[in-house]
Specification:
By secondary structure, this protein is mainly alpha-helical. The chain has helices at residues 2-17, 23-32, 45-52, 88-97, 109-113, 144-159, 161-165, and strands at residues 76-80, 103-107, 135-137. The radius of gyration is 21 Å and the shape is elongated. The structure holds iron/sulfur cluster. Residues 44-153 form the NADH:ubiquinone oxidoreductase-like 20kDa subunit domain.
Length: 166
């Protein structure tokens, strides 16, 4: 009778301390919590990205403070600003040099659709015309809080791949 009690205590402890998962789920959990953004900006929305990097918004609490100066060290591109036709091949080159798996956030009206300059002869009508955009953040410009919200949506997508498939 006493032995039975000990076993049930052990089972209770195992139930509280052991959990099973897949390797993919562990990788996605780690990826979602350690995105390394490329230090990069195209126009006025980039000023909001810089503001977001300050202590007021404290992105470090999510594990996202490691801004990388080299695309080979980064796995997140935040397209912040107007994409001109002159800059588009350079943005694409940066994206191609980034580490896999990599993600793209289109921040602001210009990056989403060309914004107020969409009718101009020299502006690309959105990052999605040449990059696989994961999250769109509307606004002109979006505030740092919006960037943070979009970033956390990206984390949710990475950690729940079924959301992405749907
Ligand atoms: S969306 Fe507005 S704030 Fe952002 S780059 Fe375009 S014009 Fe500037």
């Amino acid at each position: 009778m006493e032995i039975k009690t000990i076993q049930s205590e052990e089972e209770k402890l195992i139930g509280k301390n052991v959990f099973l998962t897949t390797l993919d789920a562990v990788f996605n959990w780690a990826r979602g919590n350690s995105l390394w953004p490329l230090t990069f900006g195209l126009a006025c929305c980039a000023i909001e990205v810089m503001a977001a990097g300050g202590p007021k918004y404290d992105f470090s609490r999510f594990g996202y403070e490691v801004w990388r100066p080299s695309p080979r060290h980064a796995d997140l591109m935040i397209v912040a600003g107007t994409i001109t036709k002159k800059m588009q091949p350079l943005v694409l080159r940066l994206y191609e040099q980034m580490a896999e798996p990599k993600y793209v956030i289109a921040m602001g009206s210009c990056a989403i659709s060309g914004g107020p300059f969409v009718d101009s002869y020299h502006v690309v009508p959105g990052a999605n015309t040449f990059l696989p955009v994961d999250v769109y953040i509307p606004g002109c410009p979006p505030r740092p809080e919006a960037l943070l919200y979009g970033w956390l949506e990206l984390k949710r997508k990475i950690q729940n791949p079924r959301v992405v498939k749907k």
